[in-house]
């Protein structure tokens, strides 16, 4: 863990919506935002780690997205993306996102898309334990680089 304390908002495929939420997805996202920001004084960054999918199976590669509303987000995104480029075959660049959850989190952080499930070759890679380890190491190196530079 390289000295980091990690908090998970989920460790299985569940959502955090309530039976009282009119919109389950929004309720789930709202509660994840609260979990991240309630630990604001203890949480230095958040990493939202996912896998991508697109209707065109041509797309591939890990990419990091960030919301422009926090001045540290772009620096973190760049550090992780450069590490992913160094350790994997991705040639993707960082990009901005305006998705609901990321607009409302006060803690610095990024969305990491580890690859495209819609691309057959990449889907196979994403299932490989060694490649998963490479992704984890890349993200870790990027985070360390970020903290060394701020």
Alpha carbon gyration radius: 16 Å
Give the integer mean of the pLDDT values: 89
Query: How widely separated are the two ends?
Result: 20 Å
Q: Which shape, going by the Cα principal axes? A: globular
Give me the strand/helix succession. Answer: HEEHEHEHH
Judged by helices, strands and strand pairing, the structural class is alpha/beta
Percent range for β-strand residues: 5-15%
Query: Would you count the extended β strands for me?
Result: 4
Summed up, the helix count is 5
Main sheet makeup: 4 strands, mixed
- Low-pLDDT ranges: none
Describe the structure.
By secondary structure, the chain is an alpha/beta fold. The chain is built from five helices and four strands; from the N terminus they run H-E-E-H-E-H-E-H-H. It has a four-stranded mixed sheet with strand order 1-4-2-3. Helix 2 packs across helix 5. The longest helix is centred in the C-terminal third of the chain and has 21 residues. The chain is globular and about 45 Å long. The mean pLDDT is 89.
């Amino acid at each position: 863990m390289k000295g980091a304390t990690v908090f998970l908002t989920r460790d299985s495929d569940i959502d955090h919506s309530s039976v009282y939420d009119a919109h389950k997805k929004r309720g789930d996202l709202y509660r994840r935002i609260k979990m991240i920001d309630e630990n604001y004084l203890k949480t230095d960054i958040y990493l939202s780690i996912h896998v991508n999918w697109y209707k065109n199976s041509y797309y591939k590669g890990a990419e990091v997205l960030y919301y422009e509303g926090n001045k540290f987000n772009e620096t973190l995104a760049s550090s992780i993306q450069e590490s992913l480029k160094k350790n994997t075959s991705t040639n993707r660049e960082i990009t901005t996102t305006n998705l609901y959850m990321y607009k409302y989190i006060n803690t610095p952080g990024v969305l990491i898309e580890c690859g495209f499930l819609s691309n057959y070759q990449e889907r196979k890679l994403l299932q490989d334990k060694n490649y998963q380890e490479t992704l984890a190491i890349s993200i870790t190196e990027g985070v360390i680089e970020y903290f060394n530079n701020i």
